[in-house]
Structure formats: structure tokens, C-alpha cells
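Protein in question passed on here:
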Amino acid sequence: MPLTTRLARPARALVALMRRPEMVFFLPAITLAAFWFGGERVLVLVTLAAPLLFILAGAFQETEEQALLPDALGGLGLRGQMVSVLDQILRDEPVTGRTTACLVVQFDDMDQVLDRYGRAAQTEVLTRCAERLCSALRTGDLVARLEGGGFAVALAPVRRLDLETVVQLAARLQAAINVPVSLNAQRLYISASVGFCLGQRAPEPTGKALLDAAQIAADEAAHHGPGAIRAHAPDMARHRADREAIRDELEAALNDGQIRAHFQPQISTDTGALSGFEALARWYHPERGLIPPSDFLPMIEDAGLSERLGEVMLFNALTAMSRWDKAGLGVPTVAVNFSAAELRNPRLVEKLKWELDRFDLAPERLCVEILEHVVAETDNDVIVSNIAALARLGCGIDLDDFGTGHASITSIRRFAVRRIKIDRSFVTKVDEDREQQRMVAAILSMAERLGLQTLAEGVETPGEHAMLAQLGCGDVQGFGIARPMPVDETMDWIERHRARPSAAPRIGYRAR
């Protein structure tokens, strides 16, 4: 063995020994021994050299993990400790008659906290949540940090533990976490999904198997969340593998350009002129062909990819607007749907400004479509702030699917809505059904009093088009006008539409 190798091992051992905090207490004994055996000169030498050696060994430095973690997190266990504790309880169960359960707490939006507020904010939120979890548990229960940012809980051994008891405990942990966190003058609403597995239901009688089972249950809960609770079941692992495969396929589709925008025209009922286009997602699958949105949009939402889809659709829409401008087609606006996930991003307005500047487009030419139920149900300060900021920027705010989400007049005014889109359920057979006419007339009357523009979607017949024009609806869109089409086809459609006479269609059969 080389001499350097033989010397390196003792050197590393000496450094590790000197970095132990208790070595500081031996300094007085070391200096006294130096004076006893070597006199004053040796005493002075040791007194000066010892602190230097400790500094070089890093005895007064924090380890990387200690430096990054605050006390509330640094005092928690890690995965290895959790597995060891669970192993011991399961081994002793035949003798003691005491069992346990493992719970995994998985935060629903912690990745978004990191992306939007930074690492320091995420650590602060995790610290607060760790403190709340510990205060909600008994003495003897172990809390450990997991690699993905969640927490695992091992219950102290008890004689009887049933499903209902653990469900109640999971709900108590969720309630502790759900209290808003105040951070930088903002209130963050944190929610968590919880999965658990009883000791006697673990796939194998080992701590690792019990913790893995609880993790699988937590993943299942997060899939059905936010705020769901799930107990482990044998078929969950297969379901998770299926979902991961679907997510991978969707991510590839978004990144490879398989999912892109089609554009559906919106026209004025007064003049027949084109007033804009709405961007609608379509999936060009390499094997299955064109997949309708009803088949893949729910999967996008379930996979947590709504924000990524929004980025793709916005890019497609602004690219199309730039092409229309270069062709001299004079398209006034393009509308893009914004999901709740996008609206929860505090940097949304900043990102949107950058995109508009990149394409040299005025904000007034972008319509931000927001589903009515998002406006009706939101109590999220970030969503409220973002919608207000988008309106101040100059973007038009369109309230989509109006009539289905129970938005109040107060909500409409609060969010500076510019136009309401009447849901197709009110438009179908409006030229034949007297009740439909009364409903639409009431909506249009309210919009007129509030100074709101109106657009009816789902117009499929000339009769519906004509009746909506007679009732006073400002714009219409639907298959009766044109189906959604790729951007290349919109060029020819615009030219054909301009060449057509602009007279409104006549109403056919009328309701009596």
C-alpha cells in the first residue's frame, strides 16, 4: 500500500475526531499536559497551534445539511431512521401485541411555492408545517423528512389501531397544515394529501415495505386531491405506474409540438365582420391521429400539466397573431383560456408582458378567458391579484361558460370582466325554445346594464345565429360559423369570409 494512502486514513480519522464538538472540552487538559511535559515554550506553542488545527479541521463550521436546514427541520428524522423505527415495532409486535401505522403527508402545491417564491420561502413553509405536524401528534410519534419535500409519520406502538382512527388522525394533520402561512405580506394557502398504511396491512412485515406502501397511498391521494386521504390498497402500485406512463406521454406531446392550437372564429352580429379567434387545444397523436380535447384535457389536469399546456397555447396564439399581422389580415384579438393553475402563479403578469413584448403585440389584442367557476369559487389572493393586474395591463377579461358557475354580479365587477361568454347550453335551439329565449334575453339585459360585452358560444345553426343577433348579443362563435382550424387554414377562411355578403341569416321556425 502506498505511503500516501497509509497516511491519508489516519489524517481523515484525526480530522473527523477534531470536528466532534466535545473535543473543545479537552483543550484545557491538552494545554495542562503540554506545560507539565514540555514547559512554557511547549505550552505557548500548543495554545497557539490548537485553535488553528481545529479551524483547519472545520470543527467550528456547520455541515452542508446543518447550514441549509433550520432547527425545526434539522431536528426531524430521516428516511433511514423512520425505516429502523418501523422495523423495530414490527419485529416486536408478536411479543408486545402493539402495532403501528405509517402516514405520508404530501403537499399539493409545494413545487409551485418553490418556483414562484424561491427556496427560502419554501423552506420557511416547510418549517412551519413541520412545527404544526409535531404539535398535532403524541409524544413518541416520529416525524421524518422525505426527499420530495413531504413528511412521514410513524405512530408510537399501540395495542389497537383501526382504519377510522388513522383517518381521523390524517384529517387532524391536514387541518393543522391548512392554516394560511403569512409570508412577505402574502397569505399562502397550503394543502396536503395524506396516504397511510396500517402495520398489519403492509405488503411485507418490514419498515421499508410499510413506508413505501404509505408513499404509494399518498401519491394516490395527491392524484385525487387536493386535500384527499387514501389508505393503501394492493392495486395502487399498478394504478400509479399507469398514471406515470400517461404523464410521460403527455409531457412528450407538449414538448414535441403534438398538442397545438386550432382557431375558431368569432364574428360580430351587427356587421358580420371577424372580431377575433379563440385558441383551442388539439392533440395530433402519432399513432391515434387527431384526439379531441374532451379525451385528453382531463388527463392534462390530472397530471398537473395545465400550466405547461397554457404556455404552449399562449405561444401558439401569439405566433398566429404575428402571422396574421404580417399577412395584413387585421385580426383584432385572439382569446386564450387561462386555468386556475396558471392564475395562481404570482409571476404570471410579468411572464405575459415578456411574451407580448417578444411578439411586439399590444395587451389589448389578447383576451384572457377564465372559467366562471374559477371566478365564483376563488378565495385565493394571488388569483384575485393576477386577474386585476391583467385587466390593468389592458388584456380583455372574458368570463367563459357564463351561466354554469354561479358567479355573482359582485364577482363580475370585482374581476373587471369585459365580456361574458354565454354557455352553449343556453344557445342550443334558442330560435325554437321560448324558455331559452327568455333566459338569454335576461342575461343580455343584465350585461347591458353592467356595461359588459357579450358573446354566445356553441352556435350551430343559422336560426340560432339570427335569434341571438335579434336579442342583442354582440358576437357569436360555433360550428355554425366555422369549426376550429389550424392556423394555416385560417388565412384562406378569412379571405372567403370577407368575400361573403354580410347580411345576417334569417330566422326559420320560431317558438310560439
In short: Confidence is low (pLDDT under 50) at residues 1-13, 58-72.
